[in-house]
# Entry
Amino acid sequence: MAEIKPFKGLRYTEKAGEIKKLCCPPYDIVNGEQRQRLIEKNEYNIIRLELPALEASEDTAPYRKASAFLRNWLNEGILRQDEKEGVYVYEMAFSAMGKNHSVKGFVSLVKAEPFEKGIILPHEETLSKAKADRFNLMKATGCNFSQIYSLYNDEDNSVFSIIEKASESAPDSEFTDDDNVTHRMWIIDDPDTIKCLSEKMADKKLYIADGHHRYETALNYKNYVRDNLNESGTSDYVTMMLVNMENSGLVVFPTHRIVRGLQSFDYNGVCEKCAEYFEITPYLNREKGEIGLEEAYKNGEKAFVMFTGDNNYTLLKLKDSSVMDKLLPSKSEALRNLDVSVLHTLVLERIFGIDKENMAKQINLTYTRNADEALSEVDGQRANCCFLLNPTRVSEIRAVAAAGEKMPQKSTYFYPKLTTGLVMNKIFD
# Structure
């Protein structure tokens, strides 16, 4: 099963400055303006390495520039590898949905295995452009700058108890980011603790929560090194943040859908077609629409809200789940019963005519975690409509992954995102 190992983490030194000004959010949620602000806070911000280009990934110059920054920072003592191999306990403390939460796991190397082996399991489809970008960056720098976020089953808390005991002292790094998430990290280099962790993890399957593009890139990079480079290092491994799936602090936000650019859109016509599959409650305001969505979630009903502007929120609840059995007979029950599967299959594909290729290229469909953003796109007449969804449950993610299947893109949003810059992995010494 999962093979983990310690590594000599690449970390910022005191010479670099305050850690809060050196770390950054995940590359895929940072735009050009945010990138510039991060660099203005500190010229050594990790965003220079993690996101060297916002332009076309075919241009290799930005990746060469990232490699040059890395080389210079190592020479200048801005970054330094730890002398001992270790694993890195990482905790995020935050507030969400009116409650305080904490998620604690550990960062280690994990042997990159093909999905077919059933050891490391995905749950979402990926996009080729993002993978090309990550591959070019790895080729140029030979580093993992950020961690893949993965979950494992630990019902008896035997793994968590090890990392909890190992992190009883003050953290080696700590800061609170602009979203009021506190990040803490402990360096664990005790060989006995690491050995115990490795043994406990040896029978685990890992479920990728966030980082599908980076994991598929790690598999491609592993093959690239084997076929093209005469190097010894950790290219068979990738860094992961590993978290107990039973952790009560796990929070998954929904990712809402924005539909734009349809040649014709008629609200009444859409509702008429939806009536075949859904119980429809039209002309709600936002508060009533969100209450209906929340009640459907609690009752295990498949539902979403369609917003068409002019304060018109329409609640759609699936009448009979057997229609999904008929339309997706080759898919697992876990995948058929997802809210996003119902929305994509019955509404986006059958009624709007947005096929899977269109979705993958984001021609008529885009995504956002921010409901206000989705609504403003419709109110601003930049979109035909949007769909507000309930979050996918962690148990649903596990069931889909265990069935060897993948959800549509952007089906989950684990919150908070891991910060980038506390620890990195230099693949070649």
